[in-house]
Amino acid sequence: MNAIEARELKKSFNGVAAVNGVSFSVREGEVFGFLGPNGAGKTTTIRMLVGLLKPDGGKAFIMGYDVIKNPIEARELIGVVPEESNPYPDLSAWDNLRLVGMLYALPGKEIRERGMSLLKLLGIEEVKDRKVRGFSKGMKQKLLIAMALIGGPRVLFLDEPTSGLDVFSVRKIHELISELSREGVTVFLTTHNVEEAGAICDRVAIIDKGRIVAMGSPDELKIKTGGYLYLSVVFDREVGGDVKEILGDYEFKLGGRKLLVVCKEPGEVIGRIVDYARAKGLKIERVRTSEPSMAEVFMRIVGAK
Fold this sequence. Notes:
The chain starts with a strand and ends with a helix. The longest helix has 16 residues, at 167-182. The chain has helices spanning 42-49, 71-75, 93-103, 108-121, 137-149, 167-182, 194-200, 218-224, 244-247, 266-280, 294-303; strands spanning 2-13, 16-27, 31-35, 57-62, 65-66, 78-81, 155-159, 186-190, 203-208, 211-216, 229-235, 251-255, 258-263, 284-290. The relative contact order is 0.13. The chain contains 11 helices and 14 strands. Helix 6 links the parallel strand 7 and strand 8 (186-190). Helix 3 crosses helix 4 (108-121) and helix 3 (93-103) runs parallel beside helix 5 (137-149). It has 2 domains: 2-216, P-loop containing nucleotide triphosphate hydrolases (Rossmann fold, 3-Layer(aba) Sandwich); 224-303, Alpha-Beta Plaits (2-Layer Sandwich), CATH 3.30.70. The strands form 3 sheets. It has a 6-stranded mixed β-sheet, with helices on both faces.
């Protein structure tokens, strides 16, 4: 059984399609990234998946439950950390957490045990009795994640969970996501940080203009965009524009002593560059090949649509 399933989801606002036939499935225990430019349909899709917005067409399922026909059963299985949300500022961190536990009808003992475990795991147990009003953004974000987890969800939706956080808080949340996945919790992650998605997600879907335009593991997406590599060459002195003559139709960027070439077969290009260097009396100081970043893959996929 899939943890999340979207089947031809559609939603329009004022006659404009925000989501137009979106279909995908997410396996149990998978960390699934959902990426797209602003206005692509990410938030609308999430709101349909969690039952906050009724689709114009199609269906959404959480652990086999139709989110429209079986909303209570579906919502009992999910935890949500929206991008724009705040705990109650005049309550302490502990009171916020206890309130959510009570809404889930958890026994008092279970709230205490699970709540303290989450606060310790997220590194905010020492401030549990302080009012949230004085919390930093990172502390609030960690508390929101604890509040989403106290009910023991099998599916966790995280919308921009690390936006604006310092590097230590980001690492803590990444470690938590990995731990949750190992425990069988499904994590559905939206983020504008595509490198983050490439680092922690098992698979990624990219939505643009209301449609899924690419889906697969980070490595699969790199192959789908052409399987190209970056060849970086550094010479001992500045290179002339005539290097273009030996590169043919290859995409390249030249800046002073540095040459960057986009290619699939670096061996052939290196041979051309070595011949060019000999002819010009240049010395090659460094040669390096690297894969494209997830940001570059994202731009190629979205930019091609």
